[in-house]
Specification:
Distance between the termini: 101 Å
Radius of gyration: 27 Å
Strand content: 15-25%
Helix content: 55-70%
Largest sheet: 5 strands, antiparallel
Number of helices: 6
Structural class: alpha+beta
Shape: elongated
Number of strands: 5
Strand order of the largest sheet: 2-3-1-4-5
């Protein structure tokens, strides 16, 4: 790789870091191409990305970003998961690491706040933005449904009362 290619790679990685809310760093040892492709596909499907890069290039790309403090954890065979959603990258990588011993979560950062392994795992347990939006919509719609039931209840009771009186009158005649 010549200097121009390295500079382009650093610039691309730096723009990825700047666009991301969360960065998760993990070690990967002995992953097959199929496993790597599967993980990349899961990350892409959730709106996150996965990069395998040389540590030296990653450290250079971190300079000038809010993730500058992460350079100390870049050692060994690393992969980097990034996402705009604060929890997606952590959620997918932690879940994948539970089922695959070839990946070990090292640490990460959310909006410049450095996280250790347990911090990344705690982040992975939180609901994603999509899940939170769904819950919020459900909370907003619940009162409207309750109001509809309350408003319709008296009319239903009145209809049942009239029907009962009609039945009573028909039996009496």
């Amino acid at each position: 790789m010549n200097r121009t290619e390295k500079a382009e790679l650093i610039e691309t990685l730096q723009s990825t870091f700047n666009a991301s809310t969360t960065v998760v760093v993990a070690h990967q040892v002995g992953m097959t191409v199929a496993e790597s492709s599967d993980l990349r596909q899961k990350m892409r499907g959730a709106g996150a990305s996965l990069k395998v890069t040389k540590n030296r290039i990653a450290k250079l790309a971190l300079k000038g970003t809010r993730y500058d403090d992460l350079d100390s954890i870049f050692s060994g065979p690393t992969i980097v998961g990034t996402s705009e959603d604060p929890v997606v990258a952590a959620k997918i990588l932690v879940d994948y690491a539970k089922g695959n011993s070839k990946i070990t979560i090292i640490g990460g950062s959310m909006d410049g706040k450095t996280l250790d392994k347990s911090g990344v795992e705690a982040l992975a347990k939180m609901p994603s933005l999509v899940e939170l939006r769904g819950k919020l919509v459900g909370l907003i719609q619940a009162p409207a449904a309750k109001i509809t039931r309350v408003v319709q209840a008296p009319a239903g009771k009145m209809a049942r009362l009239i029907k009962a009186r009609e039945d009573q009158l028909q039996q009496g005649s």
